Amino acid sequence: MDNAQHIAIVGAGLVGCMLATLLARRGHRVSVFEKRQPPSDSAASGRSTHLVISTRGWRALEAIDAGPEVLPATTPLNGRRIHPADGGDELFQPYGQDGQAIFAIHRNTLNRILVRLCGRTPGVAMHFGRQCVGVDLEKGCIELADAQGEQREVVRADYIFAADGASSKVRELAGADGRIASTRTLEPFGYKEFTMHAPHATALAADAMHAWPRGAVSLFAFPNPDRSFTATLLAPFEGPDSFASLRTREDMARVFAARFPDVDPAPFFGELLGNPVNSLVTVRSAPWTLAGRLALVGDAAHAMVPFLGQGMNAGFEDCMVLVELLERHGDDFQAALGHYETLRKPHGDAVTTMSSAAFDELTRQISEPGFHLRKQLERMLHRLYPERFVPPYQLIAFTHVPYADVLHQIGELDAVTDELLRHADARSEQAATVESLIHSVISRLPRGNHADQTH
Question: Any stretches that span the bilayer, and where are they (predicted)?
Answer without folding.
Answer: 6-24
